[in-house]
Amino acid sequence: MAVATRGTANDYLQRAPSPSGLADVLNVILDKGIVIDAFVRISVIGIELITIDARIVIASVDTYLHFAEAVNRLDLAETGGVGIEDLQKDGSKRKTQGALEGAKEKLTPGDNKDKDKAKESEKSK
Amino acid sequence: MTTSPTEAPPTAATYVYGVVAADAIPAIERPGVADAAVHALDHNGVAALVSSLPPGERRIRRRDLMSHLRVLEDAFAETTVLPCAFGLVLSSEEAVRREFLEPRRDALLDLLGRLEGHEQLNVRIAYQEDVVLREIVAADPAIAQLRERTRGLAEDAGYSLRMQLGELVAAALGSARERDGRAILERLAAKAADVVVENAGEDVLKASFLVAPKQAEAFDRELERVAEEQAPRLRIDVVGPLPPSAFATLERGAWDS
């Protein structure tokens, strides 16, 4: 969990003592640290790990359409001040997270479409 | 399983969390992977933090991943620790001494010396998308124009124009990310002992910084300065202080005893 921020940067600098999401935990412990050539790696199975892939699934076509939509949605008449702040607080963050969560859902265990989705994202690479 | 001549019962597969100096063994109270008790195996100046693993194939749960991390964090709170990657298992406690600690003793001691007191901070920097998209529209007349043309169009009618627009925006965003990422990396790296940069993907920068005790304050100030200067276009997430897993690597040469 993010803890309270120090300093004046507040909203724009978030600190946490320890990784909380699974992807962040894995990032710290899975491929980092000492390894030795002879070691037996215990099998890291478990469908949960699939969610890491969610970070890379946004296909380029979807990305382009997303950005086209995003810039079209900008209200450029609002320049400076409150408008921008409101937008960035409520808009961007939520949209991005929404997209990632959507991707994650597609990869959730038990979903029969997993294979198709994997193919799709492969194709688009 | 081979029976060790020096230890009466053949010991079970042994999970290794990390390495500490033998004169600074931390007390680890919490259970480790597979809920087994964690203890230290010392050998000639170095000590491995280990627990025994039940025989047979083991399905790793989230809990095990967290246990590995928490054991290292507990050790790190007390002393300098060299984290091992998750999943390091040797056939017995004797094998940990014989195959891991003994042949790599010098390299481990050297690394312990170099990382003493250092902490790892994982920094991830992302754009506040709408803010940066505004900058992009304002900076590129072609994008601004395409935006005007596609705004009023129905979804079908404007598809190819919209793709064109999106492609331009994605490219502009990509080069902005690269430019900003490089500049910020330079600033932060100047206040750190070492850095490991990762593929930032959709982010501006993703990197682990190794920070020496005397650098901690300056690094922190630089982070705040960047955050202040770049608000509201960037958001910085800092995780740590963590045990320095990204910097605990043995040279390949050190593996060959």
Compact overview of the structure:
With 125 residues, chain A is mainly alpha-helical. Chain A is built from four helices and two strands. The longest helix of chain A has 26 residues, at 81-106.
Extended strand count of chain A: 2
The rough form of chain B would be described as elongated
Please state roughly what percent of the residues of chain A sit in beta strands, choosing from under 5%, 5-15%, 15-25%, 25-35%, 35-45% or over 45%. Answer: under 5%
Question: From N to C, what is the helix and strand string of chain B?
Answer: EEEHEEHHEHHHEEHEH
How far the N terminus sits from the C terminus of chain B, by CA atoms, comes to 23 Å
- The SS-based structural class of chain B is alpha+beta
The percent range for strand residues of chain B is 15-25%
Structure annotation, total helices of chain B: 8
Main pleated sheet of chain B = 5 strands, antiparallel
Computed CA radius of gyration of chain A, to the nearest angstrom? 19 Å
The average pLDDT score of chain A comes to 56
Computed over alpha carbons, the radius of gyration of chain B is: 25 Å
3D shape of chain A:
elongated
Strand runs of chain B, count: 9
* Helix proportion of chain A: 40-55%
Q: State the distance separating the first and last CA atoms of chain A.
A: 33 Å
How would a textbook summarize the main sheet of chain A?
none
